Structures are given as C-alpha cells and as structure tokens.
Amino acid sequence: MLHSEARARAAAMLADAGIVLTPDERESIEIADFGLGDFERAGLAILVYVNTERVCAKELVLLPRQTCPEHRHPPIGGEPGKEETFRCRAGSVHLHVEGNSEIVLQPGDQFTIPPDTLHWFEAGDDGAIVSEFSTRSTDESDVFTDPRVTR
Question: CA–CA distance from 66 to each of 43, 111, 114, 122 (Å)?
C-alpha cells in the first residue's frame, strides 16, 4: 500500500468516525511502517494535533488486525518517560501492557500506560481509531523489543 493510499484510507476512517480534519491535517497524517515494510500488518497512521514540552494529543488509526510493535517510552533528560492514555473512538483495540492481562478497549473505553512500560497493541477485525493523550512525545527515543524496528 502506497503512503498516499494509506493516508487516504486513514482520513476516510477518521471521517467515518465523525472526526473532522482540516485539509492540512489530512495531508499531515504520518504513515509509520516501523521499517518492517509491511504496513498493513505492522504499522500506524498517526495524526498529531499538538506536541509541546508538556502535552501531546494524537489520533492513531489502525487497519483491521494491524499491530503496533512492542515498545516502551524510556526516561529522557531527567523525565520519567512518556505516560499515555489511549481512548478508543471506533472499532476495538487489544492492548498488551506489561504487568496486565490483555485489555480490550471498545469505543468510549480508555487505559493509561505508565512511563517506561512495555506495551503493544492490535486492532480488532474492523480496525480501530484511538485518541492518545500523553506527556510530551519523543517517538525517536522509543525502545522497541524487535531490533529490526526503526522509527
């Protein structure tokens, strides 16, 4: 799937969920395949609304059964690492968080992942849209379990 096709599909999923985007936001949707070259299996479409020194808000769009590989957000510069709250907006998402059994989020459900905690997630059969609210995002510092993953 080409990035332009993936971006259009993510924008359509967001629109179907009633999430209104500006034209600039539609164009700014990041298509992340984590360097694995199989976006439809392992990847995310990411729309960042804001990412300041203190807060971050994003939409994460996953295709059916698409996964985000296991990773953690380590401490950086004296900060404990990113704390993030996932709130499911559409579809379902299966969260796998260190120290917890599988957590299934349906629309309206949310879960907070502590800093520096291993986690990965997978969309259900209909895909998923997840709003992420977090402390500052430093995606380039994420530590992935699979050494082939790049961000």
Answer: 7, 19, 23, 6
